[in-house]
Specification:
The complex is a heterodimer of chains A (637) and B (327).
Chain A: E1 12-23, E2 26-37, E3 41-45, H1 52-59, E4 67-72, E5 75-76, H2 82-88, E6 90-93, H3 105-109, H4 111-114, H5 122-135, H6 153-166, E7 171-175, H7 183-198, E8 202-206, H8 210-216, E9 219-224, E10 227-234, H9 240-248, E11 270-279, E12 283-291, E13 295-299, H10 306-313, E14 321-326, E15 329-330, H11 336-342, E16 344-347, H12 351-354, H13 362-366, H14 368-373, H15 385-395, H16 412-424, E17 430-434, H17 442-457, E18 461-465, H18 469-475, E19 478-483, E20 486-492, H19 498-505, H20 511-525, E21 528-535, E22 538-546, H21 569-574, E23 580-581, E24 588-595, E25 601-609, H22 617-636
Parallel strand pairs in A: 3-8, 3-9, 6-7, 7-8, 13-18, 13-19, 16-17, 17-18
Antiparallel strand pairs in A: 1-2, 1-4, 4-5, 9-10, 11-12, 11-14, 14-15, 19-20, 21-22, 21-25, 23-24, 24-25
Chain B: H1 17-42, H2 49-74, H3 82-99, H4 102-126, H5 131-150, H6 164-167, E1 169-170, E2 173-174, H7 175-193, H8 195-205, H9 207-212, H10 217-243, H11 254-264, H12 276-295, H13 300-326
Helix pairs in contact in B: 1-12, 2-7, 2-10, 2-11, 2-12, 3-4, 3-5, 3-10, 4-5, 4-10, 7-8, 8-10, 11-12
Classes of the chains: A alpha/beta (637), B mainly alpha (327).
Chain lengths: 637, 327
């Protein structure tokens, strides 16, 4: 490991300029520029599909770019394969690890060497593995002789890192490395990254987790729609709000256009109520209600636990805790049949895997859920005839002879409409659709929207999951935002726009802890607690727990009012860690910034009370402080 | 994003899979006819009433077992144990006949067969074990138990009245053949016109989609093995009635004939595709070839090669033909 490249020098170790890449019709990279120094952690940010993963794959040699130039250590770099990149000293650590699960840790670390000719000295390898791990101060974290399949996600990542170091990698790309780690494991990973940085290596940290980006990076580049829109900004000079501004590409003012109304639209009867649903590991705490004739959107980033929530509601996943009420009665689905018979339909995300029966005709595919709901011995197809005719009209497929044709002969859009119609056969009360327009052409897309509107007017309650925020806002009356397995906001779509959704949906490692903190504060002192990001004269509420209606601060999770529009403008304006009374004299609010262990900004925590004598400030600060410690301990245990 | 594709025009004009399936059965029926014509030309005895009766008799055992195999293969499974289940239930029938009346003994044998099927089915569908391995294990256990229960010898003290099952005729047709036809009609109706039958197809074609639509995937994944085990016992009952003796080796390699018949009949080993009519044609083809080779005096040592070659050839031609139709 002698060829460390001029650590600390301002000369970049890697320069990527004008990189372009087109996949079939999508332009993944239009104009990507990137610069990386040795001895820094460089954050690469962007929304879904911004091109950050494509760019890191280009650097790691997994993708060959169409155009553009890479310069590495002062010389042009032409990666045709991962092997080329590895030889040059560039490694990538991905979420889905590339380890051989049945081999031991040691064998995995030196996997590339196992292919060499000649005899291997395992004693030598073992010594080198120890050196590498002790260099990371992790010699205890990883037993060398255990099979990789028995390791935790965090340990596997450590093996990947050690594997990169065994090849003398000077540039390591971490692509969403924290997605499957617990908060304390994230801290451990950051310690390792700090070690690597100290040893003069250059690290790229690809993530959409703003908190983590602030915690570990030195500089940040932001991508949007395949182009670099902000290059090498100093992290210390940025705020979360500024970063989001770069990511969404509009002035943040536009995020706040809609005023926060405290009244929500008139609603029908409550049909489905989900509270504190937990279906480990992906669904942690999900609550929402669904009203009659409503189209409710379930928004969030890929991996936020939306599909898993739908599957849990449909009996495809074990529910660990929480309550579901259907038409006011407790409902605990164990298998899809329970739901089908209770009038719930589910259009799964992957229609090839969970929707289409390829050997069945269109007719039988259309009648499949009818069969599932039926309890008698015979088919009862004939009695469905009229209903089938009605649905064919809805599907815009009047030719009756097509009923006998094979499903696979139709376009993806038509297939999807048939699968949706399958559920309409049953006159469901609730229809859940997971990414219903994925891989569907534009024409069919709008006819699916029309179909959903039509059935919702007939009283069907629809839950639609979509990663396309524009679609979500266009189709749904209300959007529940999920992030990391939690529902974090529930807002009418008239109050939302794509930018606000992006900010709300960004996963936050501290969500669980801060939610517990707010619950604890309100349990002890009543009143109301909230967690928010403050930006000039606006706030974005990330969570709020109101125990005493008199102390309601006037906003909920997901709202982004101006200070003046809230019930506690004076306290928000003064931002002081003492109880500040409002002009009305009843509400008193305490506000303090929430620092993480590494000292970066996690937003503000506030506590509003309406009682005459507020609890002592020291006591509250104590609780907030202690909560940090407790959460660390419980994680460790 | 995605280019606008033509909306709802099926790519091949109105060729439905069911029709394709029918034409497949038609082709196999043609093959059966061709074999019959060739054999009748080669051997004058082939079309004799005696030999035709013989053919039907031989069809009964494979035919009944093949029904169960069709059910299993439709769900994407396989049952290698039918041969040894036939052997074991045959021994159970033989022993039970020493103690009980004929109906009770037959009932016991069928219950035993169904029980073994249930055992395999639960291991496969509930515990998620590979069907091939589970039924391979049951095959070994079944054969071994057949030897142990029988005391390693054949049981020949079968009451003569049992042969009424075979030799009673209705309008000149023996009861075993009537029974075979009745079972085929029942199975065909079940698979086409009942919820259970369609569920079996759906499970084999796409298990996840079937589950999501609310069908009872677990129950209908187990049921075919129960049916297969029970039908193996029915088949061996007719065989015992014919030869009035039970041997622990009875039904050896029966599973291979049954699987071959089902596959020749157009079923896909991946599940979801196949039919009872196809299986019947497959059975007839298998039996005719065997019978024909005997009539032609082909050495029993060469018969295996001939049958194997014909099976592979039939599937190869079918695969090439269907590939052309689909593209």
């Amino acid at each position: 490991m002698t060829s460390r490249f001029l650590a600390g020098d301002d000369q970049p170790i890697l320069i990527a300029s004008q990189v372009r890449k087109t996949f079939e019709q999508t332009r993944a990279l239009r104009e990507a520029d990137f610069e990386l120094r040795a001895g820094e952690v460089h954050g690469l940010l962007g929304a879904n599909g911004a091109g950050k993963s494509t760019l890191s794959k280009v650097i790691a040699g997994q993708i060959t770019p169409d155009a553009g130039r890479l310069t590495y250590k002062g010389a042009p770099l032409y990666n045709r394969s991962v092997r080329d990149a590895l030889e040059a000293g560039i490694a990538i650590v991905m979420q889905e690890t590339s380890l051989a699960p049945d081999l031991s840790v040691l064998e995995n670390i030196f996997l590339p060497e196992l292919g060499r000719r000649g005899r291997l000295s395992f004693r030598d390898l073992r010594r080198r593995a120890r050196e590498i791990l002790s260099g990371l101060v992790q010699e205890k974290a990883l037993p060398l002789d255990v099979e990789v399949k028995r390791l935790s996600a965090a340990q596997r990542q450590l093996v990947e890192i050690a594997k990169a170091l065994a090849l003398n990698a000077d540039l390591i790309i971490f692509d969403e490395p924290t997605a499957s780690l617990s908060p304390s494991e994230v801290e451990q990973l950051f310690d390792i990254m700090a070690q690597l940085r100290a040893s003069g290596r250059a690290l790229i940290f690809v993530s959409h987790r703003l908190e983590e980006v602030f915690a570990i990076t030195d500089r940040i580049s932001v991508m949007r729609e395949g182009a670099t829109v902000a290059k090498s900004l100093e992290t210390s000079e940025l705020s979360q709000a500024e970063l989001v501004r770069h990511m969404v590409g509009r002035e943040l003012g536009s995020i706040y256009q809609a005023p926060a109304p405290l009244q929500v639209d008139k609603k029908g009867d409550e049909v489905l109520a989900v509270s504190s649903l937990r279906a480990a590991p992906a669904v942690r705490d999900v609550s929402f209600t669904l009203h009659r004739g409503e189209i409710l959107g379930l928004g969030g980033l890929v991996g936020a636990g939306r599909s898993e929530t739908a599957e849990a509601l449909f009996g495809l996943r074990t529910i660990h805790s929480g309550a579901i009420r259907l038409h006011g009665k407790p409902f605990r689905p164990r298998r899809p049949r329970d739901c089908v018979r209770a009038g719930i339909g589910f259009v799964a995300e992957d229609r090839r895997v969970q929707g289409i029966v390829p050997d069945f005709s269109v007719r039988e595919n259309l009648l499949l859920a009818h069969l599932g709901a039926r309890s008698s011995f015979l088919l009862g197809y004939r009695r469905c005839r009229q209903k089938v005719d009605e649905l064919l009209e809805l599907l815009d497929m009047p030719a009756h002879r097509l009923l006998d044709a094979n499903m696979l002969n139709f376009s993806g859009g038509m297939q999807q409409k048939i699968i949706i119609a399958r559920w309409l056969m049953l006159d469901p009360t609730v229809l859940i659709l997971d990414e219903p327009t994925k891989g569907v052409d534009i024409g069919t897309r709008s006819s699916i929207y029309a179909m959903l509107r039509q059935i919702s007017e007939q009283g069907v309650s629809v839950v639609m999951i979509s990663s396309d925020f524009e679609e979500l806002l266009g189709v749904c009356q209300r959007v529940v935002v999920m992030s990391d397995g939690y529902t974090i906001a529930d807002l009418p779509s008239s109050l939302l726009d794509e930018e606000k959704l992006t900010l709300l949906a960004a996963p936050r490692t501290s969500t669980e802890r801060n939610t517990r903190l707010l619950t604890e504060l309100t349990r002890r002192y009543g009143g109301a607690g909230f967690w928010a990001i403050l930006d000039q004269d606006r706030l974005i509420c990330l969570n709020a727990v109101v125990a005493d209606p008199n102390a309601d601060p006037g906003f909920q999770a997901g709202h982004s009012p101006q200070f003046g529009e809230t019930a506690i403008p004076a306290a928000l304006a003064s931002r002081s860690p003492t109880f500040v009374a409002e002009s009305c004299g009843i509400k008193k609010t305490f506000l303090m910034p929430l620092p993480s262990k590494r000292g970066h900004d996690l937003g503000w925590v506030g506590f509003t009370t309406a009682s005459g004598t507020p609890p002592s400030v020291a006591e509250i600060q104590n609780i907030i402080g202690s909560f940090e410690d407790i959460s660390q301990e419980t994680e460790a245990a | 994003m995605t280019p606008v594709t033509t909306q709802h025009t099926p790519r091949t004009s109105s060729v439905s899979l069911r029709r394709l399936g029918q034409s497949l059965e038609l082709r196999m029926f043609g093959l059966a006819l061709l074999i019959a014509i060739v054999l009748s030309a080669l051997s004058p005895h082939f079309l004799s009433a005696n030999n035709l009766m013989n053919l039907l008799d031989q069809s009964v055992v494979i035919g009944i077992v093949a029904i169960g195999m069709t059910f299993v293969i439709l769900t994407g499974g396989i049952d290698l144990s039918v041969g040894s289940v036939a052997g074991l239930t045959g021994v159970i029938l033989g022993l039970a006949l020493q103690e009980f009346s004929i109906p009770v003994a037959i009932g016991l044998a069928i219950i035993a067969g169904a029980g073994i099927g249930l055992f395999s089915g639960v291991l496969i569908a509930y515990f998620g074990l590979a069907a091939f391995v589970v039924t391979l294990g049951v095959m070994a256990i079944g054969r071994s138990l057949a030897y142990i229960f029988s005391g390693q010898t054949s049981i020949s003290s079968i009451p003569f009245e049992l042969s009424d099952l075979v030799f009673t005729t209705v309008l000149g047709v023996p009861t075993n053949v009537i029974c075979l036809v009745a079972l085929y009609i029942l199975a065909g109706l079940y698979l086409s016109y009942t919820k259970g039958g369609r569920t079996i197809y759906a499970v084999g074609s796409n298990k996840e989609a079937a589950r999501t639509a609310g069908l009872s995937v677990l129950f209908y994944s187990i049921l075919p093995y129960v049916i297969s085990g029970a039908l193996a016992a029915v088949a061996v009952t007719f065989l015992t009635a014919q030869i009035l003796s039970v041997d622990p080796l009875t039904g050896n390699l029966l599973e291979l004939d049954a699987i071959a018949a089902v596959v020749i009949g157009g079923a896909s080993l991946y599940g979801g595709r196949g039919s009872i009519l196809g299986t019947l044609i497959g059975v007839v083809i298998m039996v005719m070839i065997r019978n024909g080779l005997n009539l032609l005096g082909v050495s029993p040592f060469w018969q295996g090669s001939a049958i194997g070659a014909i099976i592979i050839l039939a599937l190869l031609i079918e695969s090439l033909l269907s590939r052309r139709t689909r593209s």
